[in-house]
Amino acid sequence: AQRVTQPEKLLSVFKGAPVELKCNYSYSGSPELFWYVQYSRQRLQLLLRHISRESIKGFTADLNKGETSFHLKKPFAQEEDSAMYYCALSGRGSNYKLTFGKGTLLTVNP
Amino acid sequence: EAGVAQSPRYKIIEKRQSVAFWCNPISGHATLYWYQQILGQGPKLLIQFQNNGVVDDSQLPKDRFSAERLKGVDSTLKIQPAKLEDSAVYLCASSLEARVPYEQYFGPGTRLTVT
């Protein structure tokens, strides 16, 4: 079974402050981890994936297999980062179907 | 490129009625997904198609939900009869194929309210 846990439903920070959205997972094989984002009145879209090892809009995420975590980080939050963030997992053994966490609503205050 | 299209955007029905949702994926995408997103939850996969064949429907409540993807392009998801707990946003997504974890592109969703 695959499971994704996002412990924070809500996260509020001030503009310019660092932000970290937590994600922990459970999967017996080698997982593929993703962060999806949904801005207000927009569609759910891919933000980044761990195999790309890239920074998107200043966000990075490192897969820590020892801690089974894939936390999303940004050193200086911007107001336009306010959105709903979902961590998701897929695995070869499950036809790469995505299992999503419950999401964290990030609010960046001016 | 045009995105994933869904209709209707909103639907209100009474319990025990039937409802159908339609999805048109991105052209050339072999894999199509239907998700159910209940308020406060992340999307949950209901069914996954590769072309017009079902890859995974393990979480589809088959006593009341059905889905088809004729000709491997458009898809419809039907609920018959609806229950109050079916109130949710139904998301359609598509990707190039299922054998590797390609990016999934999501439609705007259909918000269903069952009264």
Please characterize this protein's 3D structure.
The complex is a heterodimer of chains A (110) and B (115). Chain A has no helices and 11 strands. Chain A has strands spanning 3-5, 10-14, 19-21, 24-26, 31-38, 45-49, 60-61, 72-74, 83-91, 99-100, 104-109. With 110 residues, chain A is mainly beta. Chain B has 115 residues and is an all-beta fold. Chain B has strands at 5-7, 10-13, 19-24, 31-37, 44-50, 53-56, 65-68, 75-79, 88-95, 105-106, 110-114. In chain B, strands 2, 4, 5, 6, 9, 10 and 11 form a 7-stranded mixed sheet that branches. In chain B, strands 1-3-8-7 form a 4-stranded antiparallel sheet, with no helix packed on it. Chain B is globular, with a radius of gyration of 13 Å. The model of chain B has no long low-confidence stretch (mean pLDDT 93). The A-B interface holds A 4, 9, 32, 34, 43-46, 49, 86, 88, 90, 94-103 and B 3, 33, 40-45, 48, 55-56, 91, 98-101, 103-109.
Brief rundown of the structure:
Chain A has 110 residues and is an all-beta fold. Chain A has strands spanning 3-5, 10-14, 19-21, 24-26, 31-38, 45-49, 60-61, 72-74, 83-91, 99-100, 104-109.
**How many beta strands in the DSSP annotation of chain A?**
11
Mean pLDDT of chain A: 92
Form type of chain A: globular
Number of helical elements of chain A: 0
Q: What is the helix content of chain B?
A: under 10%
Q: State the end-to-end CA separation of chain A.
A: 41 Å
Q: Helix/strand/pairing class of chain A, anyone?
A: mainly beta
- Residue stretches of chain A low in confidence (pLDDT < 50, at least 5 long) are none
Please tell me the overall pLDDT of chain B.
93
| Category from helices, strands and their pairing of chain B | mainly beta
Low-confidence stretches of chain B: none
